[in-house]
TrEMBL record:
Domain ABC transporter: 9-235
GO biological process: L-amino acid transport
Keywords, in A-Z order: Amino-acid transport, ATP-binding, Nucleotide-binding, Transport
Protein name in the entry: ABC transporter ATP-binding protein
Lineage of the organism: Bacteria, Bacillati, Actinomycetota, Actinomycetes, Propionibacteriales
Keyword Nucleotide-binding: yes
Keyword Lyase in annotation: no
SUPFAM superfamilies found in the cross-reference section: P-loop containing nucleoside triphosphate hydrolases
Organism for this UniProt entry: Nocardioides immobilis
UniProt GO molecular function: ATP binding; ATP hydrolysis activity; branched-chain amino acid transmembrane transporter activity
Pfam families assigned: ABC_tran (PF00005)
Entry's family note: Belongs to the ABC transporter superfamily.
Matches recorded under InterPro entries: AAA+_ATPase (IPR003593), ABC_transporter-like_ATP-bd (IPR003439), ABC_transporter-like_CS (IPR017871), BCAA_Transport_ATP-bd_LivF (IPR052156), P-loop_NTPase (IPR027417)
Amino acid sequence: MSAANAAALELRGVSARYGPSVVLRDVDLSVRPGETVALLGPNGAGKTTLLRSAAGLPVGVSGSVYLGGSDVTRARSHRRSRAGLCLVPEGRAIFPNLTVAENIRLHGRSGREAAERVFEAFPILAERRSQRAGLMSGGQQQMLALARCLTTDPQVVLLDEVSMGLAPRIVDEIFDALQLLARSGVAILLVEQYVGKALAMADRVYVLDRGRISWTGTPSETSEDDLMNRYLSVDAGS
Ligand SMILES: Nc1ncnc2c1ncn2[C@@H]1O[C@H](COP(=O)(O)OP(=O)(O)OP(=O)(O)O)[C@@H](O)[C@H]1O
């Protein structure tokens, strides 16, 4: 595949294990530039492990991972991040004792200009730039985690349950920011607990079940009820 029409992120035949327990089996998944892809699946299906495998975080992985057509299978996480990949993990990966501005400066590598762009996208963070990050609400901390990722000018953004535990208004704000990001050509892969929200946001969906992709398609090819009944209910497939 030439770099010009390459997927922004591609996993080919990826399997992953923690010690003896295999949690991802032969997963193929791709995200094109500007595309938003949702990854759904019941608890323990392997969604976080898939994101970590893509980001090069230590799990026992086999198969191949490509970023913009380049094979990064053997590249560690910091090299993948330099190649344009950013993971916003579950929970709020920020430094609570530093100010908002310090959190952003510490992470970004593009200097003041990038920080100012991010403050434009998230006015709430601009207002609070001198406040200690740990004193903000959960939603604002989640915005900060996303904002820090954006200062690195990513090509691929991986998000693990960003909406978890947040008020609907904040979730809408975060998803609006993600939509803008996708429009600018960034590839987005998001693990999302709200199926309706994922279908509204995503261009394509993958469902993971016990480490395997059990369904993939576009939101117009399915519905929230269909996915819930066939793949995501507690007894699905058992
Ligand atoms: N560090 C670890 N060591 C051992 N097993 C792990 C580790 N992390 C996850 N697992 C196991 O791997 C499986 C997949 O976990 P993973 O967190 O990837 O699933 P998930 O789909 O993200 O689940 P959830 O929706 O509950 O976050 C689970 O059975 C989990 O218990």
